[in-house]
Amino acid sequence: MVSNSAKEVFILGLTQSGRPFRPSDWAERLAGVMSQFRPGGPQPGSHLGYSPWCIPTTVNGVRCVVVHHDLREYEVMAWDFCMNFAKDNDLQVSQGAPAPNAPKTP
């Protein structure tokens, strides 16, 4: 469950057992699907960049997607899609940035 006070949720590319999630470009794929959800709604060409509410990045050498809480307020189904993606793939989820050099362990 995600806290309502969290401003950002990090979906880490590690399963609950600590294994790397594959394919290696999963973060870019998920963020690409979410590119249409942005402040002001979809605009011509907006599919060419990531939404500011769903951004792929790397933290402590682990691929992840940062999902901003504003996505939930804008389109709850898009938020649910991201959270269910993490749940369905048994991925670790962190409220706010994970601690430096301290990957989560089950």
What's this entry about, in short?
With 106 residues, the chain is an alpha+beta fold.
Tell me what you see in this structure.
This protein is an alpha+beta fold and 106 residues long. It has a single domain (11-95), classed as Uncharacterised protein PF12112 family, DUF3579 (Alpha-Beta Plaits, 2-Layer Sandwich), CATH 3.30.70.2340. It has three helices and four strands; from the N terminus they run βαββααβ. The protein has a four-stranded antiparallel β-sheet with strand order 2-3-1-4. The two termini are 16 Å apart.
Which term fits the overall shape? globular
Q: How many strand segments?
A: 4
Name of the CATH homologous superfamily? Uncharacterised protein PF12112 family, DUF3579
Number of helices: 3
Sheet with most strands: strand arrangement:
2-3-1-4
Largest sheet features: 4 strands, antiparallel
Rg is: 13 Å
Residue-averaged pLDDT, rounded? 87
Give me the secondary-structure topology:
Layout: E1 8-15, H1 26-33, E2 54-59, E3 62-68, H2 70-74, H3 76-88, E4 91-95
Antiparallel strand pairs: 1-3, 1-4, 2-3
Feature tags:
106 residues, single chain, four-stranded antiparallel sheet, Alpha-Beta Plaits, alpha+beta, 3 helices
